[in-house]
Structure formats: structure tokens, C-alpha cells
Amino acid sequence: MPTKILLGSVVTLLLAGALSACSPLRVINAVTPGSTSEKTHDISYGSDPRNLLDIYRPRDGSGVAPVVVFFYGGSWNSGSRSDYAFVGEALAARGIVVVLADYRLYPQVRYPAFVEDSAEAVAWTFNNIQHYGGDQKKVFVMGHSAGAYNAAMVALDGRWLIAQKASPTSLRGWIGLAGPYDFLPIENPDVRPVFFYPDSPPQSQPARHVTSSAPPALLVASHADKLVDATRNTGGLAASLRAAHVPVEEVYFDSTSHASLIGAFAWPLRGLAPVLDKVVEFVDSDGGRNQSGAHPPR
Q1: In whole angstroms, what is the distance from residue 139 CA to residue 155 CA?
Q2: Could you tell me the CATH number of the domain that includes residue 92?
Q3: Does residue 51 lie within any of the structural domains?
């Protein structure tokens, strides 16, 4: 297939909101260069068969690098870390060690099992990432959609990392992309059974766990998001964090949808919005503590 037609197909699929389907993700990964990272696959971080993670390391890196643990979306009932290789490749190309982790999904489990898995994956990273060129003192957690919820819960609700003998205060920051942080009562029929609707626990909402000790946050969303209300979720959580005097950067894009916000990490779609640049800038600035700037684009 000619390159222009292939890339046009990728854009069309993503802008149609089809990122949750398998085929567009495979197209993105097929056109994503894989020469900028060294990869280690299928590392077990827990006892369940889905408790596996992959690591992407900068191929030309020297010394230790900052780390991003990434959780994908899929309404907590679908998804695979292999579908998001393009995220690992994109960040590794910018000098960041990336951990892509699977977690248990509905109907195997319901809330809070996937949060427990996410915390276990982050704790594993604290304890082991130095063996893969990562700086265990510069770990960030990031997610898209349902994965952003997982990241938020790990960063804001200390119960989950404490159960793993770790703490959110060890995180240098967290990044939420189009995340649902305050979504009761649940309207999405695919999500209702995951959170025991109509008896969804109020404490399942990240917005309930904002404290002044929370790590710095970068919250990114799309004005055109038709799946997750950006005003209520991203805007509301950002306001709560500011009220608690937690450093937070709030960014919205007009040219992305819920799906293409994460798709913009892939080089064919980076022209949609500088999502990758914002994430790298946040990590390189140590969650805003150091404003020296980000690595140059590659």
C-alpha cells in the first residue's frame, strides 16, 4: 500500500474514534519505527497471567533516565499493552524509559482489582527499573482514558501503593490523558458492571482523594471529546488540585478527539497536537520543578 494512502487510513480511523478497535492500533504500530528503543517483553510483576509488562529503553541513552509507567484505556474491559507499542517507542525516542503494563479486566475482575494491579506494577517499577536503565527516583505514572483513571487512583489514593509497601510521595508526577476522574452516576453501559452500578462506591472516584500531598499533575484533554466530559473530569480535578495547592498543568486541544489524543503519540498523527511534546516537557522538567526545557524532538 502506498505510504500516503496508509497514513491517510490511519488518520481516518482515529478521527472516526475507532482507536479501541484492534486494526487501527496495528496500523499505527506497523508504521511506527522501532529502531530507537531496546525492548524487554513479558516481565511478570504479579501472580495473575495478565500481570505482565514490557519495557522500552532509549537505544542511545547513557546513564539513568526518567521513567513513565503507562496504562492504556478500554473501559476496563479491553486492551493489551502490545497495542500501545507506539507510545513506548515515542517516549523512548525522547530519552525516557517506558513501562507498558497489562492489568486485569472485567469480567474477570471488578473495581478495585485493576487499581491494585496498577499499584503493583508501579511498585515493581520502583524496585526494579534501575536494572533497565531507569531512575527509580524519577518515576511518573501516565494513562489514557480508563488508564488515566488507574494512574490517578495510584497517584491520589495512597491506599493502593501503601499496600505494596510504597507511597505516592515517591512519584515525581502523574499524567492523565482524557481521564474519567468524577463520573458517578455511571452512564456508560459497558462501565456500569465494572463499578457495581447502581451501588458504585463513592470512594472509587479519583476526585474524592485530592490532598495537598499529591504529586504534581499534567492533565490533558480534548475539547471535542464525546466520551469523557473534559469540563467535569479534567477541569474539575484540576480545580480541586489547585485548591489543595498541588502543582497542576491543564492542557486542552481543539484538533483531537478522545481517541486521537493518544494516537497523536504516533509519528503519522503528531501534527494533530503536540501531546507528546507536552508529556516530555513535563517529565524533563521533573513535574514542573525544573523549567530547563525538554529534549529536542527526534
Answers
A1: 11
A2: 3.40.50.1820
A3: yes
At 77-98, the pLDDT tens digits run 999 999 999 999 999 999 999 9
CA quadruple 125, 295, 62, 143: dihedral, nearest 10? 10
In degrees and rounded to multiples of 5, residue 55 shows phi and psi of: -120, 135
Which among 183, 156, 159, 192 has a CA at the least distance from the CA of 171? 156
Give burial (CB, 10 Å; 0-12/13-18/19+) of 215.
buried
Give burial (CB, 10 Å; 0-12/13-18/19+) of 208. middle
Calpha distance 151→142 (Å, rounded): 6
pLDDT digits (tens, 9 = 90+) for 235-283: 999 999 999 999 999 999 999 999 999 999 998 899 999 999 999 999 9
Q: Are strands 171-177 and 248-253 parallel, antiparallel or unpaired?
A: unpaired
CA–CA distance, 12 with 14 (Å, rounded to integer): 6
Length of the chain counted residue by residue:
298
Give a yes or no: residue 48 inside a domain: yes
With respect to residue 292, please indicate whether it lies within any of the assigned structural domains. no
Amino acid at 204: S
CA gap 72, 87 in Å, rounded: 10
Q: b/e for 150-164, b at 16 or more Cβ within 10 A? A: bbbbbbbbbebbeeb
- Domain count along the chain: 1
Distance CA 18, CA 8 (A): 14
Q: In which domain, by residue range, is 86 found?
A: 3-284
Confirm if 68 and 283 have CB atoms less than 8 A apart.
yes
* Contact criterion met (CB below 8 Å) for 103 and 121: yes
Helix, strand, coil percentages for the chain (3-state, nearest 5): 40, 20, 40
Q: Is residue 297 part of a domain?
A: no
Amino acid at 131: H
